[in-house]
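Renewal narrative, Specific Aim 1. Our central claim is that a sequence can be written position by position from structural information alone. The example that follows is taken directly from our test logs and has not been curated for this report. It begins with the structure tokens describing the chain, in the order in which they were read.
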């Protein structure tokens, strides 16, 4: 599964060929982060969500690796997982020479071991999974003690919105974590390269 928030809200993720989308994926401002202002906005947010010390970050549904690259630039060791081999190839190229590894696999059940990561980072993937609660419980098992989930999600569109509301995601996460906070992202147009009116947010949950 790949972050696909830049596509129309009524375009279901499961109906898209992500290998075919890979070549143009970074054209969306919040995917490729090619605009220095958009890139800086995401870097600042990511720095506030991740630990200050160097740690192991698992980026699920990593796409072409844009967030992985920001995390690596901030000194973290990154493992990225995506179901589309073409996306993984682009991520490997984008982070060549960095302390990063990329795997082809299912974001809901990534091919990695338990208690290996300090952070599980997921952007615009959880809402499209058939059982988000089950995925969250599995991801919790991948964290070391005191690790954190960083979940960037939203409810996209105004006519027929798709996504997961912050209240629902928070309710799913709270039983798994000691501390949970929600940060609204809709009111920062630099993150998206435009002004948005729908619900966009991050849940940062620290494991007990």
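The sequence written for that structure reads:
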């Amino acid at each position: 599964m790949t972050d696909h928030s830049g596509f129309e809200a009524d375009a279901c993720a499961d109906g898209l060929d992500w290998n075919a989308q890979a070549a143009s994926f970074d054209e969306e401002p919040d995917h490729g982060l090619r605009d220095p202002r958009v890139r800086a906005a995401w870097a600042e947010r990511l720095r506030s969500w991740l630990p200050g010390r160097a740690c192991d970050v698992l980026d699920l549904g990593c796409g072409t690796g844009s967030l992985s690259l920001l995390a690596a630039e901030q000194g973290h060791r990154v493992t990225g997982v995506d179901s589309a081999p073409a996306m993984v190839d682009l991520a490997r190229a984008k982070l060549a020479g960095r302390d990063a590894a990329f795997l082809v696999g299912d974001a809901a059940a990534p091919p990695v071991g338990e208690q290996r990561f300090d952070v599980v980072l997921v952007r615009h993937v959880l809402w499209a999974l058939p059982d988000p609660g089950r995925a969250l419980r599995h991801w919790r098992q991948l964290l070391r003690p005191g690790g954190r989930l960083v979940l960037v999600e939203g409810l996209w569109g105004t006519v027929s919105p798709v996504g997961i509301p912050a209240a629902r995601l928070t309710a799913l996460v709270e039983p798994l974590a000691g501390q949970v906070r929600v940060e609204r992202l809709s009111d920062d147009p630099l993150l998206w390269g435009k002004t948005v009116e729908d619900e966009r947010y991050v849940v940062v949950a620290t494991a007990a």
